[in-house]
Design brief:
Elements lengths: L1 H7 L17 E7 L2 E6 L1 H5 L5 H18 L5 E6 L2 E2 L19 E2 L2
Parallel strand pairs: 2-3
Antiparallel strand pairs: 1-2, 3-4, 3-5
Length: 107
């Protein structure tokens, strides 16, 4: 979980930005075999601006951070309030841009 919290932490250099919103709320992080589950709160998703680029940066940042630091993890499953979702769009609207229903391969 500390790896993901580091992504949300700001930097003293104003040219370096965090790929996660300051208020990105992580409910839990757990592992089942080679799969890592990251469960975020709906409030965290609401902080996203709704653009494809922001979602892509968020997912790529998580993916690369986990690849570099946890080489034995093979895939990542994003959950929102403990549930699988098709996208990172608002609850009930399915309005996000990138599919997160299936695990994201890290290998």
């Amino acid at each position: 979980m500390w790896l993901i919290k580091e992504l949300a932490r700001g930097d003293t250099d104003p040219t370096v930005f965090s790929p996660l919103p300051d208020t990105f709320s992580i409910r839990s992080v757990y592992r089942d075999g080679a799969r890592l589950y990251v469960d975020v709160a709906q409030d965290a998703i609401a902080e996203l601006s709704g653009g494809t680029e922001e979602e892509w940066v968020l997912l790529q940042s998580l993916k690369l951070t986990l690849q570099w630091n946890l080489p034995d993890v093979e895939n990542l499953q994003i959950l929102v309030d403990g549930q699988s979702r098709r996208t990172l769009g608002p609850a009930g609207e399915d309005a996000g841009h990138l599919n997160v229903l299936r695990p994201i391969p890290l290998k």
